[in-house]
Design a protein that fits this description.
- With 274 residues, this protein is an alpha/beta fold.
- It has a single domain, classed as Rossmann fold.
- It is 46% helix and 13% strand.
- The strands form three sheets. It has a four-stranded parallel β-sheet with strand order 2-1-3-4, sandwiched between helices.
- Helix 5 crosses helix 10.
- It is globular.
- One of its GO terms (molecular function) is amino-acid racemase activity.
- Belongs to the HyuE racemase family.
Length: 274
């Protein structure tokens, strides 16, 4: 039986041709037959340019952009998708989106951290938005995995360098290996390569270890976790918690009413149910 996954990026994918193409190719490689991954990005015009990092390094702006992730999750469920997958390391509005939906909601960073814990005792994360180090460290605490995290370090290059490297990755891969070795020296037994564009670049060129330490394909882990959550739901009805402050689902009509009050109704597609 087929599985339809809504992929939600923090980038405007239509602005990033090389990355978009590589992402689609990678999903074709890691997803099992019958799994359809439908790529979605932020709305055109979300950012001043094609680079989201100028905004998402600020907590308040990332919070505001997270509203698109909640709306996209509602739209995914409304369109009959089997799972909603947040495909960005910071995982904006992950717990809030889970509290709005009945379908499985999978986070890129959470999936990577959970998988890393099955591959080694500790893990480290490399990022190219330096300001995200604080957030990713806090996310590890929220996921209950702070004790397994050795550190979050800047990888030594930027988003634009990653996009350029899709045509010639040699120099950037060596810089990545150098940064990974610094985390390994701190005790990391698994390397999470941070933001999705870097993950795709490395996976596309077969980079899966540095000095015997695994380099995790975080997007691959994210796909497999989404598939597994759908399988569990179909097999025995496994679903997320629906009680308590963080998990109880508000009434769907009230959710749409509140979105409308704040002028966000255009983000949502028709119907009365999330």
């Amino acid at each position: 039986m087929s599985i339809r996954i809504w992929h939600q990026s923090f980038t405007v994918l239509s602005d990033l041709g090389a990355y978009d193409d590589a992402l689609r190719a990678h999903f074709r490689k890691v997803a099992r037959p019958g799994t359809e991954i439908h790529l979605h990005g932020m709305l055109p015009g979300t950012y001043r340019n094609h680079y989201p990092g100028d905004d998402i390094k600020y907590s308040a702006l990332q919070y505001l952009h997270g509203l698109q992730f909640m709306a996209a999750g509602i739209n995914a469920q409304h369109q009959g998708f089997d799972a909603y997958a947040i495909s960005t390391l910071p995982e904006p509005a992950l717990k809030e989106t889970r509290s709005l939906l009945d379908i499985p909601v999978v986070g890129y960073g959470e999936s990577a951290m959970l998988t890393a814990c099955m591959l080694g005792r500790t893990f480290g994360v490399l990022v190219f938005i330096n300001e995200l180090a604080e957030q990713i460290t806090e996310n590890a605490v929220r996921h209950g995995l702070a004790g397994r995290l050795t550190g979050v370090r800047h990888v030594g290059f930027q988003f634009a360098d990653v996009l350029a490297a899709f045509t010639d990755p040699t120099a950037l891969i060596e810089r990545f290996r150098s940064a990974a070795r610094e985390l390994i020296a701190q005790g990391a037994e698994v390397i999470i390569p941070g933001e999705a564009p870097l993950n795709v670049l490395l996976a596309s060129h077969g980079i899966n270890e540095v000095d015997g330490v695994p380099v995790l394909d975080s997007l691959g882990a994210w796909v497999k976790q989404a598939e597994a959550m759908v399988d569990l739901r179909r097999a025995n009805g496994t679903s997320t918690c629906n009680r308590g402050y963080f998990s109880a689902q508000p009434a769907p009509d009230r959710v749409r009413e509140v979105f409308g009050f704040y002028g966000l109704a255009p983000f949502l597609q028709g119907g009365t149910q999330p």
